[in-house]
Design brief:
4 copies of one chain form a homotetramer.
Chain A (H helix, E strand, L loop, with lengths): L2 H14 L2 H6 L2 E6 L2 E7 L13 H17 L5 E10 L7 E10 L5 E9 L8 E9 L2
């Protein structure tokens, strides 16, 4: 089994512990040291008031991709802050979010992520960052 | 009917257009010009991997309270950016989020919000801001 | 000597170590546990291109007030991130910036600050936050 | 004269209007549509209390690079918000900051920038973003 599969299996086990991730239906499509890709298929209950993907889920996908990327580097992290820039209305059949570690560290891990529609990475819907710290 | 009831009725109508808000079960408990309060009763499907309120919902409640506060001032807004600082693990029977307009404007509206457990406003779980712009 | 004077003396000694603070001419006008107030008198070399206080100095005053507020609680801090919202053009004879600790902690300290003109705290020019971590 | 020289000449004229930029000694080393590079030679008066580049100047260089990148796309902009992540202590003989437009727009322009030491772009000292809006 490849290293990639191990990272993915670990993250899938972690994700299954999060009831909200199960409800969402997040799929982990890639995972290696410091980099992950998640996908989410659109469902109508994800909508905000004019039919785009709700900011909760935009933010949650970016935070989750950041957190999973960080977890490939250090276990048991919590986000102490995250920021989301909403570049375009988020509308797609399948959403892709790529998270990566920008700078690892023992006290804090800087991460970032981009959210886009499957096949259209050059037009991200939203970009963001999370600062992760190891839990006590 | 009081002015407060009118603001609340408008926001409730808006919230019913958002399928995700209906799934969440957000209740609008106060609304006046530039200020809103929302409540959300805990359900197990809101959990992240160690049982706290998921960052999606922490961020979504803050973004929604900011957006609703902005909407009392100007209609048809979209968030162009939001930031969340996670001060403490979010655990409560009933979550309260208070949003307010920090500075209104014709091109952009600065808003902020705080999330805490019912009756414990002095220990916020998370605080954040959103920058709102009128839609085209 | 009051506790306040001790906090102030410590911060003044710290500020004298920072060559840029000396060039700016920051004055520490109040300091207690978790709260500081700084003042800065306008000079023409602080201007950005249309004569307002330059974003460098807006951001630097907010970051410095956050850092000094944090330092009253824990020594030897560095900012890992800071954010500034520019609400209004910053024009004043004397600028005041108030910083406070939002949540202390052993691994990270959440702080925030507001910048306004002397005597006009109700119309802040900018507000912001910094996340501080103890140095290695 | 190349298009690049025209962008640079315009930005140099703009920068000469900002007294603080003149004091800093910012040099515009590259400029094209949506992308700029600035350089700044270290001077001792730029130091914070342990000798690194002061957060004011870290933030100011990132905000200025964002603003200049935005200005190649739309004139007369002001930053409504900026955020800085401080990844490493900023120490160099010559600092380089690259700014770019992430998404242009008529109401707001999303920009980002990276600060590093000359010749070492793979180890950025700080990264950040600014949201720019056209002035009234």
């Amino acid at each position: 089994m490849s290293v990639d599969s191990d990272f993915r299996a670990d993250l899938e086990a972690l994700s299954r512990l999060a009831a909200f991730n199960i409800w969402l239906g997040i799929e982990i499509t890639q995972a290696c040291w410091g980099d992950v890709e998640l996908q989410l298929r659109w469902r109508p209950e994800f909508a905000q008031y004019n039919g785009y993907l709700h900011a909760s889920i935009v933010g949650g996908l970016i935070d989750t991709a950041c957190g999973f990327a960080g977890t490939t580097v250090t276990k048991n992290l919590l986000a102490s802050q995250f920021s989301i820039r909403c570049l375009r209305p988020a509308i797609a059949e399948v959403f892709v979010v790529k998270g990566k570690v920008v700078k690892p560290g023992s006290r804090q891990i800087f991460t970032s992520a981009e959210l886009y529609g499957l096949g259209v990475p050059e037009k991200p819907f939203a970009v963001g960052e999370a600062l992760l710290v190891p839990m006590d």
